[in-house]
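Standup notes, structure subgroup. Blocker cleared on the protoporphyrin IX containing FE input:
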Amino acid sequence: MAKQSTAPAKTPPGPPGYLFFTEQEAMRNQLPLYTSVFERYGDFVKLDGLPGISWYLVARPSAIEHILVTHQNRYRKPDVFNKTLRLLVGNGLIVNEGDSWLSQRRLMQPAFHKERLANLAKSMIDSTKQLIEQWQQLDDDSEIDIAAEMSNLTLTIAGKTLFGLDLSDKAEMFGASLRQALSHVSKKMNNPFTFPEWLPTEENKQFKNARNNLFQVVDEIIAHRRKAAGDRGDLLSMLMAAQDEASGAQMSDAQLRDEVITLLVAGHDTVAATLAWVYFLLGSNTAAQTRLQAELQSELQTELQGAQQEEREAQAAPEHCGQVSLADLPKLTYTRAVIDEALRLYPPAWGQPREAIEDDQIDGYFVPKGRIIAVSQYLAQRHPDHWNQPLEFHPERFLAGDSLAKERPKFSYFPFGGGSRMCIGNNFAMMEAQIVVALISQSFTIALVGNQDIKPDPTFTLRPDRPVQVKLQKRK
Ligand code: HEM
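Run returned:
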């Protein structure tokens, strides 16, 4: 056992009884349960599901850093998580382990370097402008479901930027199938009593249908590229050209499909949820939206010189869609703060499970080998010890000069995870979100319609639990 202190290690506190009996309803939506356990028992707790099934829930930054970074070699992604997610993503990067994970990660990492990402900005800008053009045709004050619109937009962007393919006509079908498949996977992860996959239950059949829809899209992407060979410099070209160092073998279509679907799953729904939350929050916070628009006006709607002007002029859609270029993004500090704050309150990846592969001790608590530990962004990022008015939307806390920022421990804010399994697409996601918000908010003011009782749905990605109806008000 790891020796960290001479005091005997304790068991973390937690609610009495077995949750599968005492909290049946809450086990279906863990957020309220986890929030109330956190409020009652603290940021490091033990939960007992059933006799023999226990896990720890951690929202304490020092413990999260221990698990994800400083002692990450004592933890792995649990089998129950990997096994169920594999139903959808095969052996894609997110569930891969050991040497195979390392070699795939090394292979894919260069595609996400900042210099490579710079080439993708134009696609992101053009796709967003096309959507804005469509919205411009609607009457003023038209109502739309911004969550669905953002889901379609981010899928279109992911298809184009990662795989060079226009998926816009399939976006709705793909989004619906993805949600169905993820809801099935999530249910299986959180409930030990589901039917085996081979039983032809209605739910299993629906999952298989949804998965087939997704596979069809992905197989089309791969077949399309196999026909039009040649390096396009995008991620798919890199994956297809990659060779195993020892055998020289290239990835089979099945392996490629695993990575492509992983990237579509991990890279589209997360950004879609982020953008939906951004507009949910801005839609009911006039002061923040006004400040955001003032920043866009002062930073973007000015005459530019030289290369920056040329970059803007090369953009496909006309001037009235607003303008932004990659070089503008660092200046948009408030826009970035709005996105950071939405990711704090509603982190799309709201918690990650790990399994101890050896006995360990964290902050005086004993962690037996085999114990599942869930670290939670959702709870840590609302932790009252580290955030003032933690439940309120204050983008200002992410601006330079916020006095509390320096005191905050690192893992009080980690929407993209940490350690070697940290999100490979974090820069991609932030660039995309900033571009989309900068363009949309130059053209429209977004107002939330009426009193909608929107809550976060933790089924896999933390997204709004219902359509987010907003009014689009055209800006002059
Ligand atoms: C706001 C958007 C996003 C959020 C909040 C997010 C969050 C995360 C988190 C927390 C992890 C770590 C999971 C763990 O440790 O168990 C992760 C992993 C991953 N993310 Fe993201 N992500 C986002 C966008 C993206 C994008 C745009 C892509 C790709 C285009 C992507 C691809 C991946 C992949 C492949 C992994 C697995 C990495 C590995 O295990 O080596 N993500 N993401």
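Discussed briefly. The pocket of protoporphyrin IX containing FE is lined by residues 77, 93-94, 105, 262-263, 266-267, 270-271, 274, 348-349, 352, 415-417, 421, 423-425, 428-429 (CB under 6 Å).
Next: hand off to the docking folks.
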